[in-house]
Amino acid sequence: MSNMNKTTVVPKNLPWGVYVWRCEDGGVLSNNNGDVLSMNGFKGDLLAIQKMRDAATALGHGKGKAAFLPGSRQISQSEWEDQMAEYIAGNPIPGDIDA
Which residues lie closer than 8 Å to 79 by C-beta, 6 or more apart? Predict the structure, then answer.
C-alpha cells in the first residue's frame, strides 16, 4: 500500500462552511493556542457575519472581514487530538471522506 499524499478538492459552490475572521494584516484571528475564531454557517449568512464582526470588535480586531471557507466545519479539541493520533500512527483519519 502506498503512502502517497492525497489532495481533496472542495468545490467552491458549496452553500455550507465556516466563517473565520481575516484581520487587516491578512492573518486569521486566533488565540495564543492557535484556536481560530470561527463559526459554522451558510454562504452569505448576514447574521453569522455580524456575529463574527461583533466578536472580533470585542477582541479589538474589528478592522477586518469575515471570510467564508466552503465545505469546512469546526471540530472540537478532542476530535483534533484523536485525528492527529491516528494520522501519526499512519491510520485513516476518523471522519475523513476517503476513510
Answer: 95
Confidence of residue 99 (pLDDT cuts 50, 70, 90): very low
Domain assignment of residue 76, yes or no = yes
Judge whether 10 lies within some domain: no
CA atoms within 13 A on the CB side of 76: 3
Number of domains making up the chain: 1
φ and ψ at residue 35, rounded to 5 degrees: -75, 125
Would strands 64-70 and 38-42 be described as parallel, antiparallel, or unpaired? unpaired
pLDDT, one tens digit per residue, over 40-87 is 999 999 999 999 999 999 999 989 999 999 988 888 888 888 888 888
